[in-house]
TrEMBL record:
Molecular functions per Gene Ontology: transferase activity
Top-level division of the source organism's lineage: Bacteria
Keywords, comma-separated and alphabetical: Transferase
Keyword Transferase attached: yes
Organism: Pseudarthrobacter phenanthrenivorans
Entries under InterPro entries matching the protein: Cyclodeamin/CycHdrlase, Formintransfe-cycloase-like_sf
Any single Pfam family the record assigns to this protein: FTCD_C
Protein name: Formiminotransferase-cyclodeaminase
Amino acid sequence: MEDQEVTTQDSTVADWTRALAESTGSPGGGAGTGLMLAVAASLTSMVAGYGDDDGGEPDRIRGRAQALRKEALDLADDDAAASKAFGAAFRLEPGKEREEAIRQASVEAAAASAVLGERAIDAIDDLAWLATKGNRALVADVVVAFGALRAAVAGARTNVSFDLGSLRSAGTGLDEVREQHPDLWASVEKLNAAMERIDELTAAIDHRAAPTDAA
């Protein structure tokens, strides 16, 4: 299977991860971030499915999680495509064309990662609800879901920050980057705060998920 044909929708897990293991950058870390969000959403859906099925909050959480799983996979494939443009820009010969290509690719990549990060942030509340009000027998799955969600948030934060920083290769200073892209710049801090919240939520239930460790 050719790398350009590998997508989260049409490939096996084995084929997709084999492509991820290659030194091509497409798929790369951003696509992996999307996949981690899909894992978190899938586990959220599974845990919620053990709740009531009469249209209550578990049902609503499950519906949102199933929609997020599909969106996250689409975002992973979008990022893989953006990674190709990003790599192509840096392979151009030095000059104005290269600088403009880097600028455009960096901003587009940062924006794609920011969207993924926003979706991950939106998923925290549902998982937090399950952590305290969901089926207690599935607390370990909730902690694993939090781990996958944190990986998605951390990946999005790092990619947004790195992509904005890459604008320096196009001759733009960081102060100028902040002024030109305030929303993307602010998303980094939002994602940092989200990671802290996930850590707090995980710590609050970890003693139930891993009692032998606590002992």
